[in-house]
């Protein structure tokens, strides 16, 4: 990687603060000699995230003109279904507790209060 040019604003600020070209930025001039390489990030993953794994290509059967299903799709569907069932059970439990509370108040609470 090439060093930054003398027209660069950062270069000029460093020169003003006493930095000498070709030396590091540390107290004993032990820091980097070249600027950190940058790259454009086009995804929504975090800065430290590794590149995403490529999805396997779907094989197409030319004779039958059909696609083979992906092997991990049933796992995802089962996981989503289990999550929905769990949420429904939690909601049902919450409604039962609410109904119990309402029945308790109806039995022991006076009507005119």
From TrEMBL:
InterPro entries linked to this entry: G_patch_dom (IPR000467), GPANK1 (IPR039146)
Region annotated Disordered, chain positions: 20-55
All copies of domain G-patch, residue ranges: 6-52
Biased composition (Basic and acidic residues): 31-40
GO molecular function, one term: nucleic acid binding
Name of protein: G-patch domain-containing protein
Species the sequence originates in: Zizania palustris
């Amino acid at each position: 990687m090439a060093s930054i040019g003398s027209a660069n604003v950062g270069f000029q600020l460093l020169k003003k603060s006493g930095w000498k070209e070709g030396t590091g930025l540390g107290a004993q001039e032990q820091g980097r000699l070249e600027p950190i390489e940058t790259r454009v990030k086009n995804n929504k993953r975090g800065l430290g995230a590794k590149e995403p794994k490529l999805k396997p290509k779907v094989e197409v059967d030319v004779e039958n003109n059909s696609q083979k299903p992906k092997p991990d799709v049933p796992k995802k569907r089962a996981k989503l279904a289990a999550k929905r069932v769990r949420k429904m059970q939690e909601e049902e439990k919450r409604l039962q507790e609410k109904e119990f509370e309402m029945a308790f108040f109806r039995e022991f609470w006076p009507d005119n209060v």
